[in-house]
Amino acid sequence: MIKKYKKRDGSTAYMFVAYLGTDPITGKQKRTTRRGFKTERDAKIAEARLQAEVDKNGFLNNDITTFEEVYKLWLEQYENTVRESTYQ
């Protein structure tokens, strides 16, 4: 469903909300919102591409990531941005 809305600067943009399917783990419906299209045609094209991708690949559920996994990834990156004395 394509909707037209006004931005704070007064310009007009288009958005859509797309149904992605049902999450097999939680059983809840998944939807996504995409905003900021300059024309209604651009929004329709993006929505069609998204729907085609979901139809082709099915519902893409990101792997369940624990806080510990995210923390380890962040820590590896953080270690490279600070001095050794800060990290220890």
Automatic annotation (TrEMBL):
GO molecular function, one term: DNA binding
InterPro entries: AP2-like_int_N (IPR028259), Integrase_SAM-like_N (IPR004107)
Any one Gene Ontology BP term: DNA integration
Residue span, Integrase SAM-like N-terminal domain: 66-88
Residues of the AP2-like integrase N-terminal domain: 14-58
Signal sequence, renumbered to the chain: none
Pfam families associated with the record: Arm-DNA-bind_4 (PF14657), Phage_int_SAM_3 (PF14659)
Entry protein name: Site-specific integrase
Taxonomic source organism: Staphylococcus pseudintermedius
